[in-house]
Amino acid sequence: MSDNILKGPILDYVPCTTLGQFFFEATKKYENRICQIDVLRDQHETYSSVRKRSTRVALEMQKRGITFEDVVVTCSSSTIDTAIPILATFYLGAKIANLDITLSVRQVTHLLSLVSPKMIFVEESAVGLIEKSVENASLKAEIVVFGESPNYSTFTDFVKPQENEDQFKPVVVDLEETTVMYFSSGTTGLPKAICHSNRSVLHFAFSFDNSTEHLDAVLSFSSFYWITAMIFLTSIFISGGHRIICGNKVEAERTFNIIEKYKVTYMFVAPILSYQLTNFDNYQSYDTSSLRTIMTAGTALSTTQFIKLSTIFPGVDIIGCYGQTEVCVISMFDTKSDKKLIRVKNQSSGKVITGITLKIVDPDTNKIMSRYQNGEIRVKSSAIMKGYYRADSTEVFDGEGFLKTGDVGYFDEDGCVYIVERLKEMFKYLSWHIVPTAIESILFEHPGVKEAVVFGFPKNEEEGELPAACIVVNEGFCVTEKEIEEFVANRVSDREKLRGGVYFVKEIPKTPSGKAMRKEVRKSVINSPNK
């Protein structure tokens, strides 16, 4: 194989079982250990309790006609109950898809129409969202409410004791059957439902586990709409650890209190949300010595932010992770073997993990690029999606079966991967490719900048698009457009100067995971009468 193709270690073990069988047997193996702690409710439960409740839900779902051919959907923030119908769906060999309560009716309508669920578990606050979306999509789906409801069955009805529950065993289905679906835009067009099989989910979970340690007490703010929540759920069932649930919002003081009280060992947080932690002055009042790893993903941490986190959490491995819903984790540092690289290459997303093969190509010619040469990242793995649900996915694979990620990046002499930008989010100014995240990392170094999004402001065909920025100012700061422009100009190349202007806003639209919606920001500025 070419030296310009990166190949991770061979994954030496993946259980030859369905996801339902895997989770069910793990609850027996670790039955007396704590599996979940719900901070908001001050509740915890053992693996044995998880098995009992998920078994009862599976039996009730069977009574109501759910079979391996059906799709079940959840729409809930993270609580101690959210994972239970997901496990129950796995036990029945059915397909699960998860929504986020912050999505709009328009978005949920489209996503439900993609998968046509037979049953939907929804938290009480989002019942109206689901009702409107089901009606708009012209679907017939049974609604089950986490909480109280005068109109629908409740989750409490589903966890009541069932006859012969002690004799229950998960349904056996083909390992290549689709078992979980996630929603993504894919490469083009409207969002699609990404299908993962029993085999692919277990493959990416065991690949992640092979490169990870300290999963004893995991704190993550992701809802099950995001594949990261499934990674951590599956990983704790591999190791017998537990997940700590505190909703989907990062609040600095509460987070430090949780780390101290519940002895968190592993924390996952989006880079943009990490600023909540580094802007908290009273961090020294809390004992965070249990924490061993902080993992980030989505975008790279700036060097300045990496240093701030390292100061607040001394001795903690702060690692970036690169992945996509279509294939899960692609690269990250191994906290067991890459200690030195973690510190000196903090802008890297690490090395390709177990079971991944990666190449970087010129997207126009398919020529394989050498080290330090930018190109599109393409990957191959047994953890790659089966395809899109009821839609063609052939266009996202090249002739050698590699997934076209749509991400631009490169690798260095140590095989460390660096993500530059999305192909579709870069823009050109005077024929130069401008990388928005590179300028954003500079903006975040300004003490008055709380949030920032860089985009291309259309000029003309000859010049292309001018770099521009939308900014949310930190409370207590008075910042001018000229000040920001000069701050950036002193730290970037001439072509990266904010010639398109600086625009101050009260808030920046984001996805449920905290990623800025760059296209929405650009569109609002261009269409603003005050631009």
From TrEMBL:
Domain annotation AMP-dependent synthetase/ligase: ranges? 23-389
The UniProt entry's coiled-coil ranges are: none
Q: Name one cellular component (GO) term.
A: peroxisome
Q: Which GO MF terms are attached to this record? A: CoA-ligase activity
Keywords of the record: Ligase, Peroxisome
Q: SUPFAM superfamilies attached here?
A: Acetyl-CoA synthetase-like
Q: Where is the signal peptide?
A: none
Localisation per UniProt entry:
Peroxisome
Annotated TM spans: none
Q: What is its main location?
A: other
The superkingdom listed in its UniProt entry is: Eukaryota
Q: Residues in domain AMP-binding enzyme C-terminal?
A: 439-515
Q: Can you tell me which family this protein belongs to?
A: Belongs to the ATP-dependent AMP-binding enzyme family.
Name the record gives this protein: Uncharacterized protein
